[in-house]
Amino acid sequence: MTLAPCTALAGTNIALVKYWGKRGGTLNLPAAGSLSLTLRELDTRTTVRFGGAPEASRSAAARDRVVLNGQEADEKTRRRVGAFLDLVRARARLDEPAEVVTENSVPTAAGLASSASGFAALALAASRAAGLSLPPDELSALARQGSGSAARSIFGGFVEMRPGVKEDGSDAHAIPLLSEDAWPLRMVVAVTSEGPKAIGSTEAMQRTAATSPYYRGWIDSVDGDLRDARAAIAERDLPRLGAVAERSALRMHACALAADPAILYWSAATMAAMHTVRDLRARGIAAFFTIDAGPHVKVLCEAAQASVVASALAATPGVLRIIVASPGPGARVAPEVVG
Question: Among the three residues 179, 198, 224, which one is the final residue of a domain in this structure?
Answer without folding.
Answer: 179
